[in-house]
Design a protein that fits this description.
By secondary structure, the protein is α/β, with parallel strands linked by helices. Helices cover about 35% and strands about 20% of the residues. The longest helix has 22 residues. This is Phage shock protein C (PspC) family protein.
């Protein structure tokens, strides 16, 4: 009879030396704009390196914000302005023999002053009878950015004029659109989308037709103007989009057009045929007493008035 010898016991697990501590977690890289993964400015690439979220998702998010009221432009420009760029050579940047020049505080202060001034203007407009339009807000914002650019030329430190210049260009373009015509100033009231109206009687004609963004068609050809006690007076107020008005074949009309940006064709007369709407109010009257008095105020788009 044989007996098996039990295996020898395992050696004890070595205890860690006294005072040993686990290695610290890897430090997260500082938030910097990327110099390698970039399309415009490297903001999305820098956010991806900092958060670990893919760059494509950040870019899709900014694009979505652009279509959601245009806030993507503002958010991206602010991040571009406030996020410093990653050093070209991190080892050289960290060397004590050549410390980088401190970043200029002017861009950050400019953005802060811009937000404060616009906020105070909105507060005053909210609590008083003053009703400034988009032109006032955009003009104030552009003035603050211009002062920031001018101040940056006399303040030491690494300059960051690029984002401020981009913000100034964006504000200038928005100010140009807002100043194009009075119709553009009514953009928020007119809504978005194409609109079409075809009243059949003189009493059904509205005093005002409004459109914010989109084409507006007004067909008055079905209105009987043979027995009117007073002229039909109506105003078309359009912000961004074409305006097409059709008047009755037999009606004498008086048309006034205020067109910011776009061509005008009023009853066959354009800017080269005696009608000059681009310079302000310019009436055109038929061969008798006006039965329809039409005023068209368009910010950006073509205006056409024809007979049908």
């Amino acid at each position: 009879m044989t007996t098996s010898t039990p295996p020898p016991p395992l050696p004890p697990y070595p205890e860690p030396p006294s005072g040993a501590t686990p290695p610290p977690p890897a430090a997260r890289p500082p938030l910097r704009r990327s110099r390698t993964d970039k399309v415009i400015g490297g903001v999305s690439g820098g956010l991806a390196e900092y958060t670990g979220i893919d760059t494509l998702l950040w870019r899709v998010g900014f694009i979505a914000l652009v279509f959601a009221g245009g806030t993507g432009f503002v958010v991206y420009l602010l991040l571009w302005l406030l996020m410093p760029a990653r050093p070209v050579d991190p080892a050289a940047a960290a060397a004590p023999s050549a410390p980088p020049e401190p970043r200029s505080p002017v861009p950050g202060i400019t953005v802060a002053v811009l937000l404060i001034v616009v906020g105070l203007t909105a507060l005053v407009a909210r609590t008083t009878a003053w009703s400034p339009g988009p032109v006032v807000f955009l003009g104030i914002a552009l003035l603050v950015v211009g002062l920031g650019l001018g101040t940056g030329a006399f303040v030491g430190g690494r300059s960051s004029r690029g984002p401020l210049i981009a913000l100034g260009v964006l504000l200038s373009f928005a100010l140009l659109l807002a100043s194009a015509g009075s119709g553009w100033r009514d953009h928020s009231r007119g809504g978005v989308g194409d609109r079409s109206y075809a009243p059949e009687t003189a009493g059904a004609v509205r005093s005002t037709y409004e459109s914010g963004v989109g084409d507006l068609d007004l067909d008055l050809s079905g209105v009987d103007v043979s027995d009117l006690s007073a002229p039909i007076t109506t105003t078309v107020n359009a912000g961004l989009g074409d305006v097409d008005v059709v008047v009755p074949e037999s009606a004498d009309v008086q048309v006034t057009v205020q067109n910011g940006v776009g061509e005008s064709d009023v009853l066959g007369l354009g800017s080269d045929g005696g009608f000059s709407p681009g310079t302000g109010s310019q009436p055109w009257t038929g061969d008798g007493t006006a039965e329809i008095v039409l005023t068209v105020e368009s910010g950006l788009g073509d205006v056409t008035v024809s007979r049908g």
